[in-house]
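G.,

No rush on this.
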Amino acid sequence: MSKYWISDRDETPQGLPLRLLIDKIRAYAGAQGQFRLRRAQGYGLQIGSWNEQLDNSDEVAVSTVELLKASDGNEEWFYNLDAVYLTPSTTVHFGLHDSTALFLAAPAPIALQIVAYFSKVQAVDPA
């Protein structure tokens, strides 16, 4: 697994291009996957609902449509997100850390294609 921090900023209240990261994950890992949230904190009714569900569960399955809407960072936005995207052939771990950066952990060929869309990328040393 290749791991990266992504520090690009955008003009949304969320401040980070989470929607772009999710779009690229689906493009390169496969559009037929399922999203599961492990941590969801932020502003908005949907994000608040997921946060409450996670009080009683280790993870919550969410629809692509719901996650894409919440991740655009305008009407709702995340402060913290820890999620996985599961396909029959791979798992991509991603999220947003403390309103400061996005993170991505994926098989190297997929990760390299995704991070190519961002300018402020730092590889995480595996050691």
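When you get to it, here's the other one too:
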Amino acid sequence: MQKLIFIIIILCHLLIPSIAICEQYSIVNIKKVFHIINNNKAQIDIVITNNESEPIYKILCRPDDYEDSDFDYTGLLQCRMISMLKRPNSVDTDLLSQPDATRDWLSRGLFDIRQLTGNCKDDTDFGSVRTFNLRGMSITFSLFNLKEHNNVSINKSSDKYYSYDFSVAVINDKNANSNTDRLVPWPELRDNLLDCKSKSPWR
């Protein structure tokens, strides 16, 4: 039995590093709240470390039209999680994306105004509180105290902006064995409104 366990450990570290169970670490729990005054200027960066204070993952949250060299953000706020470990065959642009996603916006890490004001507001997958279970962690995003403001700036790009509070909680979860977010059905679009009572697979 001990020989079998040893062989599995060797395989995890040398041959199949991308398998989810090999990506689990005991991490330092995180609980942070961010007060966003203007959604257009939101910029949230969180580094997840292991118990030896080594950086393992990074959570980045940005507003619509913010562009990284490898990623385009959209919506009121979009959060992604990337691995800070350089390994072959790893998923690194957004671990919160839907499995086999073909677009950057196919992620529950994207918070859209239409999800936060219609019947999606209290939805488990697309509402104001969302939980991701992956790579030995439970990650919960909460967006609350959402308020709309009139834009009085001369150089305004739109006639309104939003303020809100955003909390991020990351805790250890040994039962979270997925490599990325789980596959979920998506709200249907009706008259430019999202309907969470009617969903279908995004594929």
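The longest strand covers residues 137-150. The two ends are 42 Å apart (CA to CA).

Enjoy the weekend,
O.
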